[in-house]
Design goal:
The protein is of the alpha+beta class. The protein has 13 helices and 22 strands. It has helices spanning 11-14, 17-27, 92-103, 120-130, 164-173, 193-206, 256-264, 284-292, 374-389, 401-406, 427-430, 433-449, 501-523, and strands at residues 2-9, 35-46, 53-62, 84-88, 107-111, 210-212, 215-223, 226-234, 239-244, 247-249, 269-271, 274-283, 310-313, 316-324, 328-331, 341-344, 353-362, 396-400, 422-424, 459-464, 471-473, 488-490. The strands form 6 sheets. Strands 13-14-17-12-20-18-19 form a 7-stranded mixed beta sheet. A 5-stranded parallel beta sheet has the order 6-5-4-10-22, with helices on one face. The radius of gyration is 24 Å and the shape is globular. 49% of the residues are buried.
């Protein structure tokens, strides 16, 4: 017999499978030997009171064993010889688009400017050692995209856009823990996600698709207003190659050369709002103490605590973004004369720091000019200013949080997870005034909401600018094709239609479904 229950238990019970089994059996009058398995379907922490509880939805297997792996399998057929489509970019949007194409009987050709997910690690490590960024292999470019090394946070509010559960199940099918199906804020971990991404690539290749690394798209092949393929450069040998088929363009939010190419080719785009600010890093124990209302912090049974803050200051949102409990701050620049920061967490979330982006909403109307690239240029200018303040290195300008609010220079800085190093800098002085002023006021609000949060134990690390795409590549609502270019499917975060791993995966699947329909209609002459 299978039975589902809602439970409210103490953390030590939720964290110990034996204790949970004994608790469920006793509370429900079930013989312990008859309880063959417990599957957690939903899990969330209620830390609103001093006594903390874990809310669980569980499925009990009474006198029978679980008959499956706990996730829904997707069948991926062999598509060798099937109709062909080009996927530009191997981030979450591109990978899920490629898998969906296979599911629908189409053959994906994935081209990725960067390296595979394991080779990327060498170039990432070199940033701290040499203070230089490889423009084609970094925290944003390469297999898995920016999501591969921003710790695999899978929480999304974009549930109306598509089947988010499908995305999580596909991750499980490729090696992710089934915990992501249960947790309120699912998370794979930057140490585990690369293996999952590699497994997804292997599925694509095993089913007859192709994946080409260090292969950079340079232009489209066109027949009138219809796209017929792309021209790309194999960077290792500087050889041009053509790939034919309709194109799913999933290049991510940092492929600025692609935006410039589209603008120069008069391919319709529009500027889009972003958010910019800093990475704010606290000692993780302090965040645990604040969120769990205890001097002992998380204790033995609770995970590193998360937080979420949002307020309005002078008509613009100020909020925390991409919170990384027990994580690291990382250098996320993609080119020369840039300092950009982001955050990530390992699966254990076990470091002594916790960080989040603290950002201010920037709308296109807030940026001068009428150039379609104006918001992107605003990003670039801020990143260049930050690089100059950092001494033209990847060391990051930083300031203690309370000093920033008071407009004081920090004469020293706390220890930090940011490997290239920090440099004390008056962020309150050189950040754009609309950003600095709103952050100061926002931090004051957050400090009142959470006692101890506004502190000089926390350090602000500049600058966080890559929160989302600065442009939207306009597409038709029904076919998801570009508004004027037939056979072009702008996709994911880089096209302005997603905001994270899961929503990018959902959009990748949607674009792939429309691309498969396009291939079917054109192959039958319709």
């Amino acid at each position: 017999m299978i039975q589902e229950l809602q439970l409210r238990v103490l953390p030590q019970v939720a964290a110990d499978s034996t204790a949970l089994r004994e608790y469920v059996a006793k509370e429900n009058g079930i013989a312990l030997g008859a309880l063959k398995g417990i599957r957690i379907l939903k899990r969330s922490i209620d830390a609103r009171q001093r006594t903390i509880f874990v809310n669980l939805k569980v499925r009990l297997f009474i006198n029978e064993m679980p008959a499956d792996d706990g996730y829904v399998h997707t069948d991926y057929p062999n598509v060798d010889g099937g109709p062909q489509a080009i996927v530009v970019g191997a981030g979450p949007a591109g990978l899920f688009a490629a898998l969906k194409l296979i599911e629908l009987g189409c053959r994906p050709i994935v081209i990725e400017r960067g390296k595979d997910v394991h080779q990327r690690k060498v170039d990432l490590a070199m940033i701290s050692r040499t203070q230089q960024v490889d423009e084609e292999s970094n925290y944003c470019f390469g297999e898995g995209g920016a999501g591969a090394y921003s710790d695999g946070k899978l929480y999304t509010r974009s549930k109306k856009r598509g089947d988010t559960d499908k995305i999580l199940n596909v991750f499980c099918q490729h090696g992710a823990s089934t915990d992501i199906l249960a947790d309120a804020h699912p998370h794979i971990g930057t140490d585990r996600l690369p293996g999952v991404i590699e497994a997804m690539r292997n599925t694509i290749i095993r089913c007859g698709g192709e994946v080409h690394f260090q292969t950079k798209m340079t232009r489209f092949l066109m027949s009138g207003q219809r796209i017929t393929g792309v021209v790309a450069t194999r960077q290792a040998i500087q050889e041009e190659v053509e790939f034919c088929g309709p194109v799913i363009l999933a290049t991510g939010h940092s492929a600025r050369d692609v935006y410039r190419y589209l603008a120069a080719s008069n391919i319709a785009m529009e500027p889009k709002g972003i958010a910019v600010g800093v990475r704010l890093e606290h000692p993780s124990q302090l965040i645990d103490q604040i969120q769990y209302h205890s001097r002992e912090g998380r204790g033995k049974w609770l995970p590193a605590a998360e937080y979420s803050f949002v307020t309005q200051v002078e008509g613009r949102g100020v909020y925390s973004f991409c919170m990384c409990p027990g994580g690291f701050v990382i250098p996320a620049a993609t080119g020369r004369e840039q300092v950009v920061v982001n955050g990530m967490s390992p699966a254990s979330r076990g470091t002594k720091w916790s960080n989040s982006g603290m950002v201010v909403e920037v709308r296109p109307d807030d940026v001068e000019g009428d150039d379609v690239l104006k918001v992107m240029r605003y990003q670039e200018q801020l990143e260049r200013t930050c690089w100059q303040q950092a001494g033209r290195r990847q060391t990051a300008p930083a300031q203690r949080m309370a000093d920033f609010v008071k407009g004081k220079l920090s004469f020293d800085l706390p220890s930090s997870s940011y490997a290239p190093g920090l440099l004390s800098s008056p962020l309150h002085f050189w950040l754009p005034k609309p950003i600095a002023s709103r952050l100061q006021q926002g931090f004051s609000v957050f400090g009142r909401q959470a006692r101890g949060f506004l502190t000089n134990e926390a350090v602000m690390i500049a600058v966080e600018t890559r929160t989302s795409s600065p442009l939207r590549i306009t597409r038709q609502a029904d076919t998801l094709q570009h508004v004027t270019i037939e056979g072009l499917f702008p996709c994911g975060e880089g096209a302005g239609y997603a905001g994270g791993i899961v929503s990018a995966g959902v959009d990748g699947e949607r674009c792939a479904a429309m691309c498969a329909q396009y291939l079917k209609e054109n192959s039958t002459g319709l």
